[in-house]
Amino acid sequence: MSGHCHTGVKICGLTEEAGFDACVENGADWIGFVFFERSPRFVTPQHATRLAQRERGQARTVGLFVHPTDEDIARVLEHAPLDVMQIYASDERARQVADAFGLPVWLSFPVAGREDLPQSCSVQRMLIEPIPPKNATRPGGNAQKLDWSMLEGWQPSFPWMLAGGLNVGNVAEAIRRTGVPAVDVSSGVESAPGIKDPALIASFVRNARTAGRA
After folding, report:
1. The domain that contains 119 carries what CATH number?
2. Domain that holds residue 205
3. d(CA 133, CA 168)
4. Cβ contacts of residue 185 below 8 Å, gap of 6+?
5. C-beta separation of 213 from 34 below 8 A
6. In what residue span(s) does the N-(5'phosphoribosyl) anthranilate isomerase (PRAI) domain sit (predicted)?
7. What is the number of other CB atoms lying within 10 angstroms of the CB of residue 37?
8. Backbone angles phi, psi at 83, to 5 degrees
């Protein structure tokens, strides 16, 4: 499946300047900051702000939260100007957050099989990814790949994004097979946990865009 003239690209888990600058230089659509302390990609709101104050280009900033309280979010927004909030929570909680803060909300939606795919979306976007392994200490960023066959022919009426185990070598195939309008990568463009590789970022964006135009 194909036909998207512009596949959206989100690079998540930025912690350092070289990676951030590579996202901007290569035209990533979204740059993600992880506000979840158990992640190797965790950043403080102040650190995220320092990075975001570099030349931002057209990229929008996305803050990732795991089951946050309103206070958690408010504390981050005090320092970090976010364009989007990506949340691990229930559908109902995601709607509450959108109402409370007036920002677009993406709901992270882990699935195991086609029967788990969401039928509707009450926030701005659904982020489809694999269910984490039983021993995982965090809900995402585990470099697990989703079985893309479950997405073939799935054409939801709402915006969505694919995450989980994507990298330079497989992103084009993922886009061609699923027709996904946007992709999210974190560990797949890293030289070490939390350290992005500028060359991999460049290749990932290029491969995603080329596949989207195919």
Report:
1. 3.20.20.70
2. 8-213
3. 23
4. 9, 10, 11, 12, 163, 166, 167, 171, 204
5. no
6. 9-206
7. 9
8. -95, -30
